[in-house]
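Tutorial, part two.
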Amino acid sequence: MGLRKYRSVTEMNVSPPPGPTGVRGLRLACELSELAFALRPWRFEPGVRRFHSAEEADGYRRQWEARQVRVEAR
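Running the prediction step on this input gives:
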């Protein structure tokens, strides 16, 4: 497959982006986020955690995220 050089954007055959865009797309994304939270809400443990380094805090965050999205095997 060869490359084609365009002198201006008007020469390009640009197809519209897939899916909804603009306000409609934002509304859809918010509704999907609400549905996801309703199906599996986040679980926060009470208390304050202190870390000795940014790497330790990042590791804790990765573990927390993995626990939140873990799919239970049936």
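The mean pLDDT is 83. In part three we will examine how such features are distributed along the chain.
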